[in-house]
Design goal:
Helix 6 crosses helix 9, helix 9 crosses helix 10 and helix 10 packs across helix 11. This protein folds into 2 domains: about 210 residues, Orthogonal Bundle (Lysozyme); about 80 residues, no CATH class. It is globular, with a radius of gyration of 23 Å. It has about 350 residues and is mainly α. The protein has 14 helices and 7 strands.
Length: about 350
């Protein structure tokens, strides 16, 4: 699938990882979920943890202000350090990668100079220095930052926003049935761009990006049925897959009692989050800062702030659409009144 947005040289999202975690969430599980704080208030927005606001702003910028032909050149750990916005020309991936590497090298050279106490050598380096928040302007930051310069390309969210209008009523209805926050309806923006035909290199499919094994554990039918001759893949069924995804989210909320960790688990996997909780406790910001594994990299660490950002952008789109419809109704009413005179 042509994924919704790109992470440097690779794409975001690995689909729903359930292959090692059998779903046992049934009617009794849903009843339990309704009694857990944070699950019953389905109309309450999922909150932004203290210390995460700047990262959410970064991703909102990616989703709404930066074009697909542009790169935010930034520090991979501190997303408030955006050194420059660069246009990335070229028709081939190899050509674009070559341009990106050259632009990264210029920033690395500037940071290397700052790391040994040097001053900007030219106007470009001066701009790099000024782009770094004052609290980061230390030798330690420059020394570490020169090795983690990263390019984040912009995302055209408009196709996903348009497709989402078809599925949001269904998803919101299922979330409401089990008392989960309505904000979770925006998760497919990250997983699939609300493209029912979406599929990943890992074999995940559908708007919720279930893997084959995860789908079977979730109770979805995948493959040939003994009762019919044709193959069936319920990952491509928006109703069946939505019910399964909502059940999985509810089960993870029961385990973590944390929406940031539940949403992170959708990308990183429930077992990975469980291991992180055993090590650091159920503190999302602590896990995000200190949990380091080969799999828990940039994508997993930024999945939850990306979710909050895409929710914010989508909600603005919906408000603007409602306001536009209201104005159109008012104009039509005025025209009718004038015609009646």
């Amino acid at each position: 699938m042509k994924r919704i947005f790109h992470w440097d040289a690779s794409a975001f999202g690995v689909g729903l990882v359930l292959a090692c975690s059998v779903l046992t969430f049934g009617v009794s599980g849903i009843a339990m979920a309704k009694n857990i704080q944070g699950v019953t208030s389905h109309g309450v927005a999922i909150q932004t943890p203290t210390g995460l606001a700047e990262d959410v702003k970064f991703w909102e910028r990616v989703f709404s202000q930066v074009s697909v032909d542009e790169c935010l050149m930034h520090d991979a750990w501190n997303l408030d350090a955006v050194y420059s916005i660069e246009r990335i020309p070229g028709s081939s991936s190899r050509g674009r990668l070559k341009v990106i590497q050259a632009k990264k090298q210029r920033i690395r050279a500037a940071l290397s100079r700052f790391a040994v106490g040097g001053r900007p050598a030219n106007e470009f380096e001066r701009k790099v220095l000024l782009s770094i928040p004052k609290r980061h302007r230390t030798i330690d930051f420059y020394t570490a930052a020169k090795d983690r310069v990263r390019c984040q390309r912009g995302v055209d969210l408009n196709p996903s926003l348009a497709r989402s209008q078809k599925y949001l009523p269904l998803i919101r209805q299922e979330l409401k049935k089990v008392g989960l926050p309505q904000d979770l309806a925006y998760l497919p923006h990250l997983e699939s761009g609300f493209d029912i035909r979406a599929h990943s290199r890992a074999g995940a499919k559908g708007i919720w990006q279930f893997t084959r094994g995860g789908a079977k554990f979730a109770g979805l039918r995948v493959g040939r049925s003994p009762y019919v001759r044709t193959s069936l893949d319920q990952r491509l069924d928006p109703v069946a897959s939505t019910k399964a995804a909502v059940g999985h989210l509810a089960e993870m909320q029961l385990k973590t009692l944390s929406w940031p960790l539940t949403i992170t688990a959708y990308n990183y996997g429930p077992n990975g989050v469980s291991r992180a909780i055993r090590k650091f406790g159920p503190d999302y910001m602590k896990i995000r800062t200190h949990h380091k594994t080969r799999i828990f990299g940039f994508a997993a660490r930024n999945y939850f702030p990306s979710f909050l950002a895409v929710r914010n952008v989508a909600q603005r789109f919906e408000r603007e659409k409602r306001e536009q419809s209201r104005k159109q109704v008012a104009v039509a009413a005025n025209s009718k009144n004038i015609g009646a005179l």
